[in-house]
Amino acid sequence: xxxxxxxxxxxxxxxxxxxxxxxxxxxxxxxxxxxxxxxxxxxxxxxxxxxxxxxxxxxxxxxxxxxxxxxxxxxxxxxxxxxxxxxxxxxxxxxxxxxxxxxxxxxxxxxxxxxxxxxx
Length: 120
Hints:
Layout: H1 6-20, E1 29-34, E2 39-45, E3 50-56, H2 60-65, H3 71-87, E4 94-96, H4 105-115
Parallel strand pairs: 1-4
Antiparallel strand pairs: 1-2, 2-3
Helix pairs in contact: 3-4
């Protein structure tokens, strides 16, 4: 049978996005990933291959709040992440949605990060 798995389609979307989205020293890439239970976000400089800022719902303070991978968790994590990124000196980023459609959790995270002071 010639069936295509969902995971393969997701990987194709990721590759298609990454062809166009590239993080530099001036504008690193903000990559956000939602799993079934947790949310992961990081700012990456693709020129050097280094992660500048990382935050997930598994971190100490956020773990106490018991954030989940829903809209409320995305909003809280977006606000906290923007503050952490600004403290690290990152203000402008390029947004990488990791193959997820830009609505729901992803859109709420992006809007919260913008409210926190990141521009993209």
